[in-house]
Here is the input.
Amino acid sequence: MTPSDRLVAARESAVARVAVLRAELAAIIDSASSTTGDDEHDPEGATIAFERAQAAALLDAAEASRRELDAAFGRVSRGTYGVCVDCGASIGDERLEARPTAVRCVACAGSVRR
Ligand SMILES: [Zn+2]
Here is the structure.
């Protein structure tokens, strides 16, 4: 598998994940709005709010990884994919296999505190 094959595969699954999570979130919002108004002290309200927050967080994460993959495609087209943004060394195939969106080599990633 070439690095761009991996990116294509990873992006496809990220896009699919975003779609699934969006549908999930919409279903939660739908079910919440259909019960709202019946009883505002509905004990299910808290559960729905929790599920909704959880689904929203998962969706955010999936969208963030899709954006990272888009950025990785940008680096491929500029010819900077697999090159560490900090030291300019090669990130290494093994690391890119595990993390196709990595922008730093292992050494630089280890020294970054975020
Ligand atoms: Zn580096």
User: Anything to note?
Assistant: The chain has a mean pLDDT of 89. The CA atoms of residues 94 and 100 lie 10 Å apart. The pocket of zinc ion is lined by residues 84, 86-87, 89, 104-105, 107-108 (CB under 6 Å). The chain has two domains: 3-81, 82-114.
